[in-house]
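hi!! sorry for the late reply, been swamped w classes. u asked for the two structures so here they r. pasted raw, havent cleaned anything up. first the sequence of the first protein and right below it the tokens
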Amino acid sequence: MRAKRTISLLMALICLVATSAVLRAEQPIITGRFSADSIEVGDRVEYIIDIEKDRATNIGIPDFSGGLSPKQRAEVAKQKLAMSKYEAYNENIFELIEEYPLDTLEIDGRRLHLRKRYLLAAMETGRIPMRPAILYFEKNRETPDTLYADQTLQLNVLSYAELDTTLFLKADPQSQQGFAVDSEKAMSMLKEEGLYTQKNLPFRFAEIRDYAAYAGIGLIILALIIWAIIYNLRHCKPRRQSVAKPQPKLPPHVVAIKALEELGHRKLWQNGKHKQYYTSLASILKVYIDGRWDIGALDKTTGGVIAALRDIDMPRESRSDLIDILQTADLVKFAKALPEAEENEANYTRAYYFVENTKQQEPSSDPKRDIIKEAKIGE
């Protein structure tokens, strides 16, 4: 009987141990490490968490995989802020640069080996503790548990002021101070401390991503400006030349003929505006005379214009017509005379032929024609 009882107790004990072993196996196992033991303040370091768990166990670090109930998610939101893993980050000791996706490293039956990585930048100096932790759900539980790693990590964050720079010096008789920096020894000591110069750090595009975006936008704007300038130079050049090129000055007789034509179209005397008609007619002739002989006719009276033209060579009939027109204009303006319609028409025609017969002649290719014309004018 005693032997049977002993065997029964042993069997129960074995079952209990096996059950506890099974339960123990379902609990995740976590370990953590930094990619370097020592860094300089401001430098970056990878924080790595390795997790071994059962397939049926849900974990959060802190982003949970799908399959959690709304109640489980609510419990996670309450508890994840209390995790010691995030206390150092909340105190601005570290700055989170990048969070990498959860990787599956190994699958062994029901066991999974996962890895979570963070890229951090140390913002404070000293020996900084970090205890890896995760949230996990056991089977059929709505409330998550916090599981910590067995060991607390230590990261030594140094500043250049903590390094004994006198160790970098070597004797140098040629130097004024008698010593110089031993660059090889300095680099060796920095590497022993886990520090690296900036030129030896791997380049990461993420470091200049924002600057590259701004530079790209700036280059696009600059290209558009250059294109607009080239387009304007090619397509607007003739227009600018035509605007900038001064218009040739019209001869005085051309200006006078155009003014007489406009005066005829206005029909002033036909509408009883005799004074305005003769004022315009006399003004047109004085402008022509001033442009043709430059005697200041606009500032002279009728008598002054006639006196200034006394020494000017012109046909006698043209001189007589000019005097008649200017004197008639004075009578209408100052004596309120009202000439007949025939006289108004005649004075308009005389003004036209006065301009035509006294205009400056263009050089002719036929000398005989010029001699005949001068003879007619002399008569």
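now the second protein. again sequence first, tokens right under
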Amino acid sequence: MKKIKLNFLFLIYILILFIVNTLIYNNFFSDYILNLANFSDLQWSPSVLFVQKIDIYKSFYDNNLKNIIFSSGFPNYSTVSIYLHLFISKMSFQDATLVWFFLFNIIMIYLYLILKNYTNLKELKIFFILIIFLMSKPYMLLLSKGQFSIISLLSFFLYFLFKNKKSFLGFYLISVKYSFFPLALFYDVILKKRFKYFVYTVLLTFIFVSHYSYIFNSNFFDNLIAPLLIGKYSAASGVLDIQTLLGNHPKNDFIRYIILLILGLVIFFIIQKNTLRNKIFDMSICSLLTLLIFKHLYYDFVLLLPVLLYVSKINKKILKYCGLLIICYFWFFYLNSFTTSFLYSKIFMFSNFIFLNLLLIIVVISNLKENKNFLLNKK
């Protein structure tokens, strides 16, 4: 009876998932998320141009990239992204969006199964958390934009919850979007004391860049750094992160990125030294620090999903409810017709930066080591 009940719950989830995603795909929620489902960020165009033997990196250096890229699908991810999207390169854009839509559904079904089989959460709780997630504005924007971040989100779960091949696959796919990668790297090197994942990732990246350079008879180093430079000139403003708040200070890009990396490393090191180990907790910390330090747009707040999973299990009610309220704010109230007029004002961004830091503090103090647990009443 229990098995039948749980299978029924899973089928209900799939039904709701397809209904919600179909409505998103057909712009039913466009007023709710203040965006059309135009799949503008889908990395279809770079792969199409690659198949047509057009060197997109050379086009960038020749200041011609904007003239050949469809919509806003600029190749500002790791070169491997071009290869990962080859499966849609022979299709029309409309057909590619449909294939991405089905891939999106498969990922969300797989995510349900991961949470059911690889966490100690009750299935009913998983069901309701994912239904809430489906209704969140970042999730809807993610599908509407055709964003790669859905794969980045899945990759976080693969990396943190699995071992060996699936874990490395998650780690490598996280590296495709550069702004997602630093905290996963810190976690792997500092906590796992493991360097081979990073070495394998660098080697694979070099292989793809080498192949690209061979195909177009172009400079390896220029191709290696091209996605970073394209990202600098094509990416929109972040919403609350330190990188966005710093703006162009200091003016030297290299120094600015080093400061961000050192800051992330120091904060991560302090947190991990003073907290207990728990996979969902560790994933939550990496997710929050990723959003707080490196440039991210609003749809990337799907990274609050592991945080919601963790917060839902906090025993201290005051911490739990405050955490839930902050997540609810970012998912459902941050973006609306009223806030759009000042969404990117420094005051509003800094206020939201404080709110997200409060969520980080809640998560951290709920899991302090016993001798560090001075902020909570001991039972």
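hope this helps!! also noticed smth abt the second:
The chain is about 70% helix and 0% strand.
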